[in-house]
Amino acid sequence: MGKLIRERLEIVGDVGKLKVNSGISVKDEERIKKVCKNFAENSGLCLNDAKKIYSPLIEYCIKMEEKIQKENSKK
């Protein structure tokens, strides 16, 4: 379970890094697919269930990314 939590924190951590480096994006489809696939494999869930669990977190990260980008563009 520690690995699964660490993967989630990596995604959220990427949002924080946007304040420093706007080149990092949590909208990276390949990264999202890889994280969902790893979560499914490690948890024993099917890929669709893993996506359902991760979707709210990913949506939150995307909203935060957009908010940070808007704030950065105002500066």
SSE layout and pairings?
Layout: H1 2-17, H2 29-43, H3 47-74
Helix pairs in contact: 1-3, 2-3
InterPro entries: Chorismate_II_sf, CM_dom_sf, CM_II_prokaryot
Pfam family, one: CM_2
Protein name: Chorismate mutase
Q: What oligomeric state best describes the polypeptide chains here?
A: single chain
What is the count of β-strands? 0
Average residue pLDDT: 70
Q: In percent, how helical is the residue content?
A: over 70%
Output the radius of gyration: 13 Å
Order of helices and strands: HHH
Can you walk me through this structure?
The chain is mostly helical. The protein has one domain (2-74). It is built from three helices and no strands. The chain has helices at residues 2-17, 29-43, 47-74. The longest helix is centred in the last third of the chain and has 28 residues, at 47-74.
The gist of it:
With 75 residues, this protein is mainly alpha-helical.
Question: Notable features of this structure?
Answer:
single chain; 75 residues; 3 helices; elongated; chorismate mutase activity; Chorismate_II_sf; Chorismate mutase; CM_dom_sf; CM_II_prokaryot
